[in-house]
Predict the 3D structure of the following.
Amino acid sequence: MNRGGGRGLPVIPIKDANPTKRFPVVTVLFIALNVLVFLYQASLGPVRGGMLATLFSLVPARLFHPAAASAGSVPAGLTVVTSMFLHGGIVHLAGNMLYLWIFGNNVEDAMGRLRFALFYLLCGITAAMGHALTDTRSVIPMVGASGAISGVLGA
């Protein structure tokens, strides 16, 4: 059964039908923060932007094996959070922010602003740690809000 509008295209939601009682302040702040970080990184150019991503991304080896951390790097524990605000490209960012915009407002409305903010961050941290624990010696940087967004979708 083809669910892509008859043309074999994937179905990508652009809105939902669940009205909210109040403006989603926290959702908009998270979207703005993600977009601003992406724009800042892009403004640095490929070399300096890549260095910024490397410094603030979660690298399991730096987290679980402190000797792997290079001098002047961001504290490894902090990268569990900072990595959630970096993205690997415009498509990665756009996909995450689209789903946050569509579904985050309803979850924020149901939970309240503070609980939603804490929930979002906790989901992102849990996902990042779950991924990092699969290979604690990995030196591959991990970025993105996908874990936090997945938590919002689950809620």
